Amino acid sequence: MSRPLDLRHVISPGLRDLIELANTHDFDRVQQQVRDLRGCTSPVNLHGWTVTTDTATKEVVRSYHSEDEPSGRLLTTCGNRRASRCSACSRVYAADTYHLIKAGLSGGKNVAETVRDHPRAFVTLTAPSFGPVHNRPTTNSGQPHPCACGDTHAEDAPELGTPLNPATYDYTGAVLWNAHAGQLWARFTTYMRRALACHLGMTQKALNTALRVSFAKVAEYQKRGLVHFHAVIRFDGPDGHTTPPPPWATFDALSAAVGLAVERARLTVESDAIGERVIAWGRRFKVDPITALGDGELTDARVAEYTDAKVAGYVAKYATKNAEGAGTVDRTLMCRPCAGRGYLRGPDGFHDVCADCDGTGQAEPIKALPVQRHVRQMIRTAWALGHLPELAHLKLWKWAHMLGFRGHFSTKSRAYSTTLGALRDVRRAWRLAQAEAAHARAGLPATDETTLVTASSWTYLASGYRPGEELIAAQVRHDIAHAQRIKSEGDPWL
After folding, report:
1. Helix, strand or coil for residue 220?
2. Which residue stretches belong to region Disordered (predicted)?
3. Distance CA 240, CA 236 (A)
4. Which stretches of the chain drop beneath a pLDDT of 70?
5. FRET partner for 398 with CA separation of 20 to 30 A, picked from 240, 250, 276, 426?
6. What pLDDT was estimated at residue 300?
């Protein structure tokens, strides 16, 4: 019987744990499990089992128990779409989003390739002004000229997007706009169909019988802390992407409908504390045609040509971003034990001050956040509005770190293209096929997948790595980054 290792002389907890893992019965499996995560930042730790049985022969075809792992648990990717939280999983999400958008523009993934001949537009909708802000205006040739403050700001100037006069800036209006941006988009899609029917001089019923409008959109934060939407809008025939739209459904008709819908879509918010507010789109919006082929470059500042691939890449890039582009934090400020209320209901039914937040309801004080004054004021405004009784349903204290925005970052209509779930199913089927191929190479008999039944039971344990596993994961991330750098720049030693 071997004696336990004496690692008291090893100062580093990570190195000490790595040595312990290296002395387990199967260190290769420890490394393989971490490598399979492809650099995931915070993997999910699971305990449980799965057993696959052939119902025809009653034999167990495959079985897995997490207890058989050297660490006694299974690690699986966190699946977080946010690049600020997990760059590895966000890359997978971005790739899926790219293929989803691209399929709706070029076909593939069970979408007819004829969709590239349908009228398609790349639409940008923005928020209205809530007060003048520092900006970097440019001429038609792209040359910057002075801001309203008199200075010509650099591209990375920290004051960009902040109010010229914070005392008069409408922070309440800005936060409420963010909070209702998702609802305003839903109303826009309804009004666009109405506006299209009006523009074409036909009834909505007749329009819906002859035409289907499909779309996919993504939200992006501007420097001033307000979201705006980029959307792909496509005209289809009555049966969706498999049928062409009628001849009168042109890009010009789509552009006109967008303009009318931007003007007419409205929401009204009523409150005794802040009065009546009208939520509407800003005056600046763009509607550009998408071409099937082209070599133009797509950038934030200037567009040479909108092509299928470049629009898909543009949307995918923003699908993995959160509010960090506006300079805010990527975590909720709500105290979880008291759900942001600042109190807990005791056994006697009375409200007791929450010990975790000292009654503030904040997981960390807003005044201590490492953010700019403008962002801090938007967070404070969202927190205060969320505690008004008439606005409690918005739960703005929960979304204060998002500056009030509480909608989905990316959405699509049902008939636009494939789904993220379908893309994940394809990956899962591919992995299963690889496993079956390895099964066959080992000389084992093939199984009939139609007669297999899988039973499983899993329990969540925690998130993250052991200290030693984190060292292995860091090496995996380094290797992936190095391989990507060589792929993009070439090997300097060749």
Report:
1. strand
2. 138-161
3. 5
4. 1-8, 10, 292-304, 435, 438-439, 442-450, 490-494
5. 276
6. 45
User: CA 484, CA 471: separation in Å to the nearest integer?
Assistant: 20
Would you state the pLDDT for residue 439?
Answer: 62
Tokens 């969320």, located at residue:
386
Q: What pLDDT is recorded for position 36?
A: 92
Residue 359: CA count within 13 A, CB half-sphere:
3
At 341, list the tokens.
Answer: 């209320």
Q: What angle do CA 323, 327, 332 make, to 5 degrees?
A: 55
Among the listed residues 388, 387, 425, 381, the one whose alpha carbon sits nearest the alpha carbon of residue 403: 381
pLDDT at 302: 41
The single residue listed with the structure tokens 């089992």 is 49
Please say whether the dihedral angle defined by the alpha carbons of residues 380, 385, 386 and 388, taken in this order, is positive or negative: positive
Q: Which residue has the tokens 């470049």?
A: 310
Residue spans of the domains in the chain: they are 13-81+424-489, 87-139+157-327+408-418, 343-401
How does pLDDT run across 374-426, given as a tens digit for each residue? 999 999 999 999 989 999 999 998 999 999 998 788 899 988 998 888 888 88
Distances (CA, A) of 435 to 350, 422, 446: 58, 20, 11
Is-contact 150 189, C-beta < 8 A?
Answer: no
Tell me which DSSP letter residue 69 carries: S
**Alpha-carbon distances, residue 463 vs 74, 80, 469 (angstroms):** 11, 12, 13
